[in-house]
Amino acid sequence: MRALLLAALALALAAQPEDSAPRIDYTAERAAIGRYQDADQRLQDVGWQLARANAAFCPKVVPSIGLQLQDMASYGAPAIARAVLGLERDFAVQTAARGSPAALSGAFTRNREVIALEGFDPNQWPAGPAMEWQRLVRAHDHVEAMLTGHGGITITFAGAETARVQPVEVCASRFELMGEGRKAVADGARVVIGIGFPAFEYPEEPVFAALVAHELAHNVLGHDAWLDRNGRKPKHVRRIEREADRLVPWLLANAGYDPQAAVTFMTRWGSAHDAGLRMRRNHEGWDERAEAMAAEVPLVEARMAAEGKADWATHFAREINPDGGLTRRAKL
Fold first, then answer.
1. Distance between CA 152 and CA 150 in Å, rounded?
2. What's the CATH superfamily of 40-170?
3. Beta-strand pair 184-186/91-96
4. Which pTM value belongs to this model?
5. Which residues pair with 64 in a beta bridge?
6. What are the pLDDT digits (tens) for 41-67?
7. Which of 20, 21, 158, 236 lies at 20 to 30 Å from 168 by C-alpha?
8. How far is CA 327 from CA 182, 219, 232, 244, 267, in A?
9. Where are the domains of the chain?
10. Contacts with 324 (C-beta within 8 Å, 6 or more apart), sequence order
């Protein structure tokens, strides 16, 4: 997940004569980490807004404060990462999602060193070799457990200053940025987007949010588990992809975004990147996908006008039977 740092480090080392001691360009390293964190901040801001605003309709919710940690053990060169960020230990704040309890507290500034999570010091947990991600997952699991069991969490920073934060409910999905790649996937528990995905270049937040909403839709609609039960045949994948597409305007509207941004995203991304038989095998054409999204927009707008919310748990027409196979509508 730290490919940007590794790439910058590789370039810095390659520029040195073979018989000289490696000299690290800390300015370049800091800039590489900063670019990664900027992209992650954008993802977390949008993911939080979508997950928080749609919590009333999600089948599963979890308590969250909108905090994303970082662990130096997940970098390719942990010692260099600590030096670049000015840390003595491994754990620090990565992001506090805009509007979340963590952000509103004002305590969770980027790269602030963390020494305890409700009395437990994650820095004391054994770390594996470089690029290990398991310890960071354990830390986030611990935070969620404390929020669930204690109704809040006290986090201690270097220097012994503390912040006590109470959570709010969000749709049960985490958002993760990969430091390389151009893919976006959902696995039932996470939305994972590569930093190379073209939507990161889209300046309009609602259009970028449409990408995140599509992946979140897979999770809140239970698609991964449904495919596990029913098989990952192309016809099944096409159905869950279409269903996720159609839910995007609903998710966007509840989060305060223009639902039409779903169509804008699919048209812009699809016309440039949705090509080839491999893509068409599991997806409809981008123009068909955009039309399906557009058909939902007036339904969403009508619900928003009548009720002030787009209650997709009640009013959204499913393509699949969550407890069985395809719906009768999908088979026709």
1. 5
2. PDZ domain (2.30.42.10)
3. unpaired
4. 0.91
5. 168
6. 999 999 999 999 999 999 999 999 999
7. 158
8. 32, 19, 16, 15, 28
9. 40-170, 181-331
10. none
